[in-house]
Structure formats: C-alpha cells, structure tokens
Amino acid sequence: MKTIEELGDVAGLRVLVRSDLNVPIDGETIGDDGRIRASLPTLVQLAKAGAKVIVTAHLGRPKGTPDPKFTLAPVAKRLGELLQPEGITVHFAADVTGDSAQEAVQELDEGEVLLLENVRYDPREESKDEAQRGALAEELAALADVFVSDGFGVVHRKQASVYDVARQLPHAAGGLVLAEVDVLKKLTESPQRPYVVVLGGAKVSDKLAVIDNLLAKADKLLIGGGMVFTFLKAQGHEVGKSLLEDDQLDTVKGYLETAKAKGVEIVLPTDIVVAPEFKADSPATVVAADAIPADQLGLDIGPDSAKAFAAEIAGAKTVFWNGPMGVFEMEAFAGGTKAVAQALTEVDGLSVVGGGDSAAAVRQLGFADDAFGHISTGGGASLEYLEGKELPGLAVLEED
Question: Which of 102, 246, 321, 351 has the fewest C-beta atoms lying within 10 Å of its C-beta?
C-alpha cells in the first residue's frame, strides 16, 4: 500500500480523507472520543504539509436519509477543539457532496480541515448496486485531487467512501490504517510466543471464524463473556438463565476437540458471578461454573477465574483481547473485564485491545490508552482480518 509520503508534495492539493469518527454520542455529548483522537495524526500531517484536507466519515445508522440524531456537527466541534493547539481550523459542511460541501471546499485554505456531513445520509454510500456507489464516489472524487484511506474501522466495508472512491483518485493509506495492519500482521504472521487470545462478548456466533482461524495460531484461548455459557453447556453443565446459543453447541464441541488435537488450551472460567436479573442492583453471588442455579444468569467471570486469566496473560509475549468478560457497564459485573485489562497493561510484549466494546471498556474503567501496546479502532475489521478474510478497503489500496 502506498503511503502519504509516496503521494509526493501535497501542498495546495485537495486531499479527501476517509476517517472513522463513529463515536458514541448522546445529543451533543460525545461519550468516548477515542476514534477522533486516533484520526488526528494523519489530519495533522496533511494539514501541516499544506494540503486542503476534506474529511468524510459516518456516524451511526441513519439509513440513507438525514437524521439530526446522527449529524457530525458535534464531532466537527470536538475535532476543532483537538486540532486548535496545532493551529488548524476545522470547518463543517451541512451536506455530503451538495452545495454546502462544494462551497466549503472552494473556500478552504491550505492547512485547514473540512468535515463533510454524515456520508451515510446518502443511500448510495451503502448500496449493493455498484453503479449507485460509483456515482457517489464520483461526486466525492470531484471535490478532491487525491484520496487517503484512514478509517480502519470501515475497511471491511465495500462502500462508496471507502472502496469506490479509491478507484477514482490517486490513493494512499493513512498512518492509522498502516499501524493497524502492522499490528494485525504481528498477530497472524509471526507472533511472539506464548500467544494468548482472550475472547468475550455476547455471542459465540460473532466469533466463530476467529476461533476457527486462531486455533491454528494461538497457544491458549481464554473464553469469557456471554459466549462462555455455550462452551459450558457443550461440556454438559447447567447454565441457568444465562445467554445460550443452542444452535452452536455442536460447533463449540468441535472446537474443544480440535483444540485438544492441536495442543491448544481453551481456558474456561471456574467460577461465575450470577444474579437473578439483568439489572445493576440485582443481588450478585459467585458460584462454581459447573453449578449455576437454574434461576440465575451469569453476568461476569468470577474472582478466581479473573485471577487465573490474569496469570495466563502475564505469562504471554503476545495477547489479543476482543470482548468484555461480563457486563462491565454495571459495577457489580465489571471485575472480570477490569482484571483482564489490568493484566494486559503488564504484558512484557505486545498487548492488543481489539476495538469495539473492549476499547470502550478500558476507557470507561479508567485505563489510559497508552497503557496498552495497541487499542484498535476497528473491532469488526480486526476480527475479519483475523478470520483470514480479504478486506475490500485494504485490497483496493493495493491496486495501482
């Protein structure tokens, strides 16, 4: 993939940047600005080089029509606050490629940044019809001279602002995309050992291909979160009212057998924090993982399991973690996730937090980003890469 430096002198050029600014937002309040901060180095690099920087991004799922709940205006404000110390001014266009965007591009000075309105306001962005996506890409390309792909969280999507526009302009990968790919190569091509993978989250079905692929690469898989109850059930244990995917039991049994044959250890919790209801104030108790009462549901791994998981992580040289160990948003069920996060900060090697809920969890629990080797901005993209899938947004960057 071509780098920004290989584009040559960008001074005076209009550079369209696809960033990932899809942050949690309530009204005008941004809950976690991690993705905005991650986009800054590439924007600063281009602006300092004298480019006219035009940013396209999405927020949420507005379903192809303007919706005030999903406006990028609050993101533009935050972006301006973060770039102000660099002396970089941020402007905002009220549409995607319409009159507001075109006028703002014409008025944009060298070294300034313009954020276009939510690209998913345009139904062509996510269209399955190549001609429709191509038409939007043409409009985006008309605003710029070159394209930089820096939204790693969307590179697994074949969308107009990610894939099609790269086929219409000279293009390069931004620093964030290059950094993410470099980390993923370390996880898949030549990981330092022992290599421990920690998987959590709600459903086994969300991680099937990842488990399948990593069974051939990792030394140990630690399983927590809601998905663990399908593993426990596959071993013949009662899981009470816990989240369970009955249709995945045979698949999970197959994974347990495959892991044993390959010499890969799948580590499951030995104790579980349970409660009668999915509520923050529901009375929590700790039970053995093989003795969950029928009227209880598991909401976190237990304290003994948290210590055991932390010990496994401490002995690793490479750790990839995707998915919380429990309902970390509720204090009574955050202990397992906090223990895993703390253990990752102490790894003598590469520790990777795989984006999505895991990234949100470490920040909500008070951990600094730089406490980890890498926090991914793209949970879905990271998982698909680890599954061995081709990511369209990366593949197109490798085209001449």
Answer: 246
